[in-house]
Amino acid sequence: MMKKTVFLICLLLIMSAAILALAAPVEINLGVGESYLIPEGRRGSYTVSGEDIVRVQDNAIIALKPGRATVRVSGEKETEFSVLVLFTAEKTASADDTAPEAVQTEQALSSPSPLPAAPSASPAPIATPAPEPEPPAEEEDPSPDIPEPAADPTDPKYQYYDRASVPELINGAIDLAFTQWREDAAEGTKKFSRLGKYNKYSYWQCGSGSGCDIGWCGAFLGYVFDHAGVPMDAPNDSVPHEDGEPYSVHAAGVGKINTGFSKMERLTMVPRPGYLVIYGQQKGYGYKHIGLVTDVDELADGRFLIKTVEGNMSSTIRRYCYVFDSGEAVKNTAPCPEEYRCEDAGINAYEHVKNWNITTFCQTWY
Fold first, then answer.
1. What single DSSP character describes residue 243?
2. Which end of the chain is less packed: N or C, by CB atoms within 10 Å?
3. Listed residue (271, 279, 280, 223) closest to 251, CA to CA
4. What's the DSSP call for residue 263?
């Protein structure tokens, strides 16, 4: 009798675990024409609710038209994917289209929300995101047509944004980001240790389970601002706050962070230390990656010299320097002048600006 009772309890526990696994679907956002490669451990036979919105081909969920669909997986691990498909400006796919190459898009496992309209200066078209690039070799010369920074700091066209004007909470977050960078890369060197997908930043967002498979650039910033004591709201709960008080968004997905700051009415194209910077692909997907602005020098004619700390760059934390041109909507970044890299051995030129642009800055304060 005892053995039978134990067997029944174990059976109930197994059934409960299966029900719980299906009760929390994996939430992903896609634009029309984009695809999401289902992780190997979650593959099996697929049932699609909303076949006109998505289809599954070669273990990839392919977005056909805007809407919401569900993909259920029966296999080694029972999984349910809740897919929100958004518009794209360049392509409207149909069920007869040839499936695009499957790519793993950066997705947080929190509830998705439609992305708001980008700021007026941000690039319009949205296309399939490319995998995050490896930073090229450092010896490449900066483009010769990049304007040199003004030499005289007293020049009215040149302004350095001193961190003394930044709120204490935000300065604490910047300092903590530097601390995390020093833990990952010895100060003053360019030797990096790779953290992999599952680390304390991804755990901050979705726990220590093996299903915490996210791009952690946003989770790195969430971890830093949370541990620095900066107040945070979930994207859909975000509202405007008076007097520019320090605030951030509790999310890891770049699109969700953009959503939260849009609801707070805190998106801008003017950088300041402590702001978050959202990158997109030139003439493409507008919410590819996110970093933290640590230093800003305003140059002439709407250009800014910017330094950042960024997570999940080739699975590491790195610091970067580049020139941002606020007068350009698409190709608005250029490599950092050599003298600014030489003064700081821990800084890297942002060489992949050839493919990326700045979509917007998120005002954690003002």
1. G
2. N
3. 223
4. H
Give the highest mean pLDDT range of 119-128, 186-195, 267-276, 294-303. Answer: 267-276
For residues 73 and 11, the model is more confident at 73
Amino acid at the residue 18: A
| Residue range 79-94, pLDDT digits in tens | 888 887 766 433 333 3
Burial of 125 by CB count in 10 Å (0-12 exposed, 13-18 middle, 19+ buried)? Answer: middle
Whether 113 shows a pLDDT value over 50: the answer reads no
Torsion angle defined by CA atoms of residues 241, 242, 246 and 247, in that order, rounded to the nearest 10 degrees: 0
Residue tagged 């800055």 (tokens):
361
Q: How far apart are CA 335 and CA 355, in angstroms?
A: 12
Instruction: Identify the H or E element spanning 175.
Output: helix 168-184
CA-CA distance, 160 to 158, in Å (whole number)?
7
Tokens of 75: 């296999």
Measured between alpha carbons, how far is 110 from 54 in angstroms, rounded to an integer? 20
**pLDDT over 80 (residue 226):** yes
HSE-up (13 A, CA, CB side) for residue 366 = 19
**Residue 202 is encoded by which pair of tokens?**
């991804």
Q: Rounded to an integer, what distance in angstroms lies between the CA atom of residue 343 and that of residue 182?
A: 17
| pLDDT tens per residue, range 298-321 | 888 899 999 999 998 878 888 888
Contact between 289 and 355 (Cβ < 8 Å)? no
